[in-house]
Write a structure and sequence with these properties.
globular, 63% helix, 5 helices
Length: 71
């Protein structure tokens, strides 16, 4: 099953977040909880586009500019 263009990009974004989380010794669940977006929210981003404000909260916890997370 081929992913649509935006779905591929969103998956790539989640992969970036996961890589940065691991570099900080954390899981996606921990990043979601610390950022206040919810434990499973980042996992759901594989299937739906996140809101800008939510993405920014995650970027802040990872200590990166939100633009780094964009696909």
């Amino acid at each position: 099953q081929k992913l649509g263009g935006w779905k591929k990009n969103v998956k790539r974004m989640v992969d970036k977040i996961e890589t940065l989380a691991k570099a900080n010794g954390k899981t996606l669940k921990e990043i979601g909880k610390e950022s206040g977006v919810g434990e499973n929210t980042i996992y759901r981003w594989r299937y739906q586009m996140p809101r800008f404000a939510t993405l920014k909260k995650v970027a802040d916890v990872l200590n990166v500019d939100y633009k780094v997370l964009l696909p």
